[in-house]
Amino acid sequence: NKFNEKFIIDSGSSKKEQDRVLDLYGETLFTDNDFLNSKNTLVVPNNFCLTLPVHMARIDGEYLYEKSEFRYLPNLHIVNSKNKKSVDKNSVMTIFYTSEDKNAAIEANAINESLPNSTIRLVKDPNLKTIKENLYGSNIVHTIAHGSDGNIIFNGYVIDGFDYCDAFPDDLETVSFSVCRSGVVSQKEAFPVEHVSWSHNLLKRRVKKVLTHSWDLGQHASNSFILNYYSNYNERYIAMKQYRPSEYGGYMIWGK
């Protein structure tokens, strides 16, 4: 289809071509442009919407993320679920990053410098043992690494993505991934009872918010998005319009 052609196979296709695909997406999702404008929108995605997020659709020349704040949920039951109240209100963030890519260190240090009031641990090329040792007291975890075949790769350390998530404590405030295909959802049936993904795994353990990306990331777009996500959240998408949608369009924020 047009999405695979312009976003995956030829991710370097022009912004104009990619925007046209997203115009068609908006026309398909919302007949007669009947998207109800609201400040906040909750989506329980299925099928293709798990790959191309609804907020990337365009109506009247605008992305839906310009019209509303989108969050994604695996089901509506999570709306009524209770999270453990945080005892420590101070933000303690652990950033795991790979030394294999210099841009990973740049992103990690940029986040550190942009959050002077937070306690931030920078951990290079961790293994599972190191990960568990460095999460004590953390309520935010960010990962900058390569992703391949469901694994997270830190300069030679290959860790299964689900094992990686299982190393995290429950009730975290935020978990985010600058990892290609971190948002891939296993779906063997047309309408499965339950999806399988890193984000779904973490939400089951009462993580409040999870940020993933469905396909390969553009490095510079990723750095820009993540920096705004943590330091200037309400304006995180403004800077993204200079990039092609294929470079950042797979980001999904899961949680209430």
Counting DSSP E segments of at least 2 residues, the number of strands comes to: 13
Helix content: 25-40%
Strand order of the largest sheet: 6-5-7-11-12-13
Distance between the termini: 32 Å
| Overall shape | globular
> Biggest sheet, open or closed, and with what strands and sense?
6 strands, mixed
**Overall radius of gyration:** 18 Å
Q: How would you briefly describe this protein structure?
A:
The protein is an alpha/beta fold. The chain has helices at residues 2-9, 15-29, 102-114, 128-133, 161-166, 198-204, 219-231, 245-248; strands at 40-43, 58-59, 62-63, 69-72, 92-97, 119-124, 140-144, 146-148, 151-154, 157-160, 174-178, 209-213, 251-255.
Topology diagram in text:
Layout: H1 2-9, H2 15-29, E1 40-43, E2 58-59, E3 62-63, E4 69-72, E5 92-97, H3 102-114, E6 119-124, H4 128-133, E7 140-144, E8 146-148, E9 151-154, E10 157-160, H5 161-166, E11 174-178, H6 198-204, E12 209-213, H7 219-231, H8 245-248, E13 251-255
Parallel strand pairs: 1-4, 5-6, 5-7, 7-11, 11-12
Antiparallel strand pairs: 2-3, 8-9, 9-10, 12-13
Helix pairs in contact: 1-2, 3-7
